[in-house]
Every structure is written in structure tokens, then in C-alpha cells.
Amino acid sequence: MKEKKPRTNRPTLRKRPFKEEVKYVVKIQDWDWGFWFGITNAPHLSGGHYDDYRHLEITGTFVAPHKYAGRTVELAFLPDRRLNNQGGGTYHIGSIGHLTLPRSARAICSMPFDSLPAVLQMLIAERFRFVVFSGSAARYGQVDFRSFRFATTFDPQEGA
């Protein structure tokens, strides 16, 4: 009877690579607050026959990371009432938004609905000058954000 030889070409188990935390800093150039109201196409989702859609749009330029510095980016912040409640939900949330980089840089992020009035007041008063995102390194032209903050100042050493 022949002895079986141990397999030598068996693939080795690899650890997942560490996801590097990167700061994406955008200097605010312009902003707009959009509002849409109308008859809903999905009353079972909106809870009624009408629906409204509010969103904050910001246009700016990257300050960091250095390889994107000076590039224009469009940001859309979508307020969500469900985010006001910190509890609930047993599912895993991987990101609060994402950035697409290939041709034109665009980002979409969720934000708590109740934070919108304060953010708008600070934008009207021209106090917020930067948006600082924390997320993964770009992969295939996509970035997932884990957090963001609006800031009045930015320390260049922070984005390095």
C-alpha cells in the first residue's frame, strides 16, 4: 500500500491586512442646503403619503492627504432621524459614508438629523472652515469613512 505524502502546496492562512486610518481634510469653499417635498413613491417606507428630503451639500478642496491636495470634492450630508437614537440595531455598521475618487471626487455621508440646525448655523456664520474625515486608505478608488467632524481650524501636522 502506498503512503500518502503530505500536501506541500496547501495555501497558508493569511491575516487580514491592518486597515490604515487616514485623515481626509476638505477646506470648505461653498455650501448649500437643499430641500425637496413631494408625494412619496413608497408610503410603506416613509409612513405617509408625503416625503421630504433635506441634505447639506458642500464643495471644497482637499488639504490632506497630500496626494489629493488641491483637488475639488463634492460632499453630501444626508440627515437621518434614525441616527438621533444612539441605541438599537444589532447589525454591524461598517461605515458612515464613502468617498469615490476615480474621476470626480464625491462623498456621501449620513449625519444625525438633530445636528443639522447647529451645523447650518455655524456655516452661515462662516465658522466652520474644514471637514475632517477619518477612514480607510483608498482602494480601487473607494474610501469608507468611520467618522467626520466639522472644524474651525486645521493643524497640517494632524493630516500628515
How does this structure look, described?
This protein is extended. A 7-stranded mixed β-barrel has the order 1-2-3-5-4-7-6. It has 3 helices and 7 strands. It is mainly β and about 160 residues long. The model has no long low-confidence stretch (mean pLDDT about 85).
Give the key terms:
mainly beta, 3 helices, single chain, extended
Number of helices: 3
Shape: extended
The amount of helix comes to: 10-25%
Q: Give the distance, in angstroms, between the N- and C-terminal Cα atoms.
A: 65 Å
Low-confidence parts, pLDDT < 50 over ≥5 residues?
A: none
Q: What's the layout of helices and strands?
A:
Layout: E1 22-39, H1 43-46, E2 50-64, E3 72-80, E4 97-100, E5 105-112, H2 116-124, E6 130-135, E7 142-151, H3 156-159
Parallel strand pairs: 3-5
Antiparallel strand pairs: 1-2, 1-6, 2-3, 4-5, 4-7, 6-7
Summary of the model, kept short:
By secondary structure, this protein is mainly beta. It has helices at residues 43-46, 116-124, 156-159; strands spanning 22-39, 50-64, 72-80, 97-100, 105-112, 130-135, 142-151.
